[in-house]
Amino acid sequence: MFQALRIEEELMVLKMASFRTGGWLKRSFTAVAACLLAVQVCAGMALSNLHSFDGPNGANPRGTLLQATDAYLYGTTQTGGTNGVATGGDGTIFRISPAGEFQVLASLLGTSGAAPQSPLIQAHDGVLYGAAPEGGIENLGAVFKWSPDGQYSTVLLFTGDQGGMPNGLMQSPSGDLYGTLYFASSNSVAGGAYGGVFRLTTNGVFSTMATFNGANGANPRAGLLLGADGNFYGTTFKGGTTGGWGTVFKMTPAGAITTLVSFNGTNGAAPLSPLIQTEDGALYGTTSAGGIGFNGIPYTGFGTVFRIAADGTFSTVAFFGGTNGSYLATGALVKASDGALYGTTQRGGTYQAGTVYRISSAGVLSTLVSFSPLDGSEPASGLVQASDGNLYAVTATGGKYNHGTVCRISIAAHRPVLTISPPKDGFCDLCWDSETNAKYQIQSTDAIQPTQWVNVGDPITATGPNWCVKVPKSAEKCFFYRVEVIP
User: Would 177 be classed as within a structural domain?
Assistant: First the structure.
């Protein structure tokens, strides 16, 4: 089991909002503040290690898991397997059930592709496709597929004329596959040094859609998003017009590139992850560096989460500072069923082994899990919310054999974190990290180990973040308060 802090719900409720409404002892206030910090780190989380990779069955998984139509979770490992053992292994394709039933489906062979790091996709016909950035004819990578009947085959082996180091794939409604290349065709601008975007039919017909020139971006490390408007959106790891710290771009179906954002370091740098689009048309993404701690040197800064509104307005949603995570993962954010965004950082946290974080709809950043090297560390992938409501991820290192793990993160309903002001004019302010249009019910009790909570007033619908109400103080009794989320 993960060495994560766990708080029993009854104790957690008391810790979240225990105070003396009359007299307001300084000692009690200190205790409440400490407890609130602990709850922000770990409330509502339960972690399980489903599998530890041992080398022969794979090692160092880095791609976000895919839940296929058969309900199994599918993924790849960058190294390990039974081929290329002398150099650490060429990687594997595996599947695991939500209950932890694990199976290796294929061991990659370097001549047909190696070191997969991006997510698999399931095509319209049920076949799984993936990209390997190494191996092949010229060690420039490959696109491969695995069919439900257990057959592994190569769709394309890249050559210098096409480019190399392919990243994550996506399938368009027409059935064609689209992806990015860290290096574009050697015949393109600057010999392909800046990378590009390609299209590939499922029977291996390749075409270059666009190439980057440095000013409009360079060297993408993430796959594409097909937006609601029919255009493609993505990020580049380098390039741009404000220092070369990376970009966000739009590509039309005809291959015309438009730069939406050039990162300048202070607002983020070196994006590694794909974008997601929410119902309001906004794009969300992460940068692996920049922000707090950025000093103009590559890879400095702890990373950011950003938003681009439908009208093109850019804003930074969250800045990381190291203790709450750093070096944001290559996987995309996921918007879970509770409306919040979840993601991972590869480093930072209590043990400097990475974190899982949550960003509420009000923009409140919470660190939910600090990984321990003994149980799994460096969660390079993103998270996926499976049909059972749980989040699943892989860690690139740590675990029983230090070759990485598959883990499950069970998220309980998010219980608001309360803060309480000292009494003034007969009242105290009770505040919590609310979400717009969410409904809440304040409850109280005067028992240390309560068996029953009493509603205080009517349900409340919050119209913004950090909602506050006034509660009367009492000179005779000590009251404990909690706020329940009403579905």
Answer: yes
